[in-house]
């Protein structure tokens, strides 16, 4: 599924109207009707008590209403349900409000009670939405203007939020702010048109106040801001509805952004998720991962990463570790080869170890470094030697990223010929980019894309809805995973998976995207297999790969 920001959405609207010749009023009609359809669907599910108590954070797509209202009810029965409903429609003065007016008209036609609540006097509504104000008047849809009398929510069964859409600029002001606050306080379920009013459509930043929606009916294309927290949270469940904008218009040469679905993995990234193994393949066919990881007290990180690499399908895995640790982990994973590195008995790493790692790498296909490495004297030179000397794909995680940050980031060193995949969590990303963690989280997609482009790396910015940015500027947002995966070692598992996929010949962006996707999926399955998802531990993810 393609993602767009507000600017791209405006450009797509413009092209559809001016170059293709579809009138703006038709788009607004389609938008309002799509909202009405989802609102009706929601009311029917509610009447059947089929709604989950809380939104589930789903993102779905609907083209031409295909099969969305999969119920056995007749139109007469549906109208009967809608007669029990009375929705308050919050109408802003831009086109988002226009969509809300169209929806109100269709809902009234379906025999639902609706009342319009204009944020300002409707005479102030100009442009495309003005015609919808006239239609609403001609049809005598009950209406009032916010602030002219006290707002009483008694008798209403839901609220449609059509206050602000992609035209939002900054924190909601004036009547918008007051109305959003009161709507949030009403306790009524809310459905947002295009995006919850008060969310930044591009970044997912949530302004104060912001509508807390149960469902967001996103129009035409999924807005990037709805895929990232906290925007994703206030949006509730998101359904993306087609409004007749030709999909081909979005397929430009510009590196795009995508929600990472199986379809995107296959069609945009060329990954074959269920590729069969060569019938006469042998362990050498599937690559050999070399892992530089672990130190005193942190050998578990190396174990998890190397085991995950094997489960991801590489033929062989060697774990390079401080020599004095080796006897302690010898039998933990019998499938694994160990390469003890000279440590003078310290169970730690040193600058000199880089030469040994590079020598081992000569006969291996990919190097992953970082999990449980610890920090040590000469670490900058150690990592620089790997960065500049490893002529195979390199995955850097955890302490290796902190070393990279301390050394001034990738800009300080020679650009690599072979691929580099960096897998920071927000704190590590902050150190790499020289900004605060809050700044990283404010615009994860934008930051990840800029960093990947600038440094020619594949960047995996972890956290709920992990962002994968490719060196060509494409961005993929991962929808799989569960909060149960917020547990020590889950990141080490991801490092191993990505390395294991690289060893099998996937490109950096393929391995990063597919790796993040299956890591999340395995986590979901592992969580579902537990009596309580909170008891999931990282090793469970490996078992469900
Ligand atoms: N052809 C199309 O363009 C289609 C658009 N659709 C819908 O239209 C909105 C975008 O509409 P737009 O008129 O550009 O902007 P908004 O309605 O989101 O809001 C503009 C309105 O609000 C005021 N405003 C902006 N920010 C603030 C703020 N922080 N506080 C207070 N007031 C604010 C501003 O002055 C304007 O008056 C899009 O999301 C779709 O819902 C249809 O989908 C059809 C095609
Ligand atoms: K809205």
Automatic annotation (TrEMBL):
Origin: domain of life: Bacteria
Positions with a binding annotation for (6S)-NADPHX: 95-99, 165-171, 176, 194, 301, 372, 425, 492
Keywords of this entry: ATP-binding, Isomerase, Lyase, Metal-binding, Multifunctional enzyme, NAD, NADP, Nucleotide-binding, Potassium
PANTHER family per the UniProt record, alphabetical: ATP-DEPENDENT (S)-NAD(P)H-HYDRATE DEHYDRATASE, ATP-DEPENDENT (S)-NAD(P)H-HYDRATE DEHYDRATASE FAMILY MEMBER
Segments forming domain YjeF C-terminal: 266-545
Segments forming domain YjeF N-terminal: 9-251
Residues bound to K(+): 96, 161, 197
Keyword Nucleotide-binding annotated: yes
Organism name: Paenibacillus zeisoli
Protein name per UniProt: Bifunctional NAD(P)H-hydrate repair enzyme
Biological process according to GO: metabolite repair; nicotinamide nucleotide metabolic process
Quaternary structure and partners: Homotetramer.
InterPro entries, per database record: Carbohydrate_kinase_pred_CS (IPR017953), CARKD (IPR000631), Nnr (IPR030677), Ribokinase-like (IPR029056), YjeF_N_dom (IPR004443), YjeF_N_dom_sf (IPR036652)
A GO molecular function held by the record: NAD(P)HX epimerase activity
EC number per UniProt: 4.2.1.136, 5.1.99.6
Keyword Lipid metabolism found: no
Cofactors (names): K(+); Mg(2+)
Biological role: Catalyzes the dehydration of the S-form of NAD(P)HX at the expense of ADP, which is converted to AMP. Together with NAD(P)HX epimerase, which catalyzes the epimerization of the S- and R-forms, the enzyme allows the repair of both epimers of NAD(P)HX, a damaged form of NAD(P)H that is a result of enzymatic or heat-dependent hydration. Bifunctional enzyme that catalyzes the epimerization of the S- and R-forms of NAD(P)HX and the dehydration of the S-form of NAD(P)HX at the expense of ADP, which is converted to AMP. This allows the repair of both epimers of NAD(P)HX, a damaged form of NAD(P)H that is a result of enzymatic or heat-dependent hydration.
Family per record: In the C-terminal section; belongs to the NnrD/CARKD family.
Short name of one Pfam family: Carb_kinase
Binding site for AMP: 462-466, 491
Cofactor binding note from Swiss-Prot or TrEMBL: Binds 1 potassium ion per subunit.
Catalytic activity: (6R)-NADPHX = (6S)-NADPHX; (6S)-NADHX + ADP = AMP + phosphate + NADH + H(+); (6S)-NADPHX + ADP = AMP + phosphate + NADPH + H(+); (6R)-NADHX = (6S)-NADHX
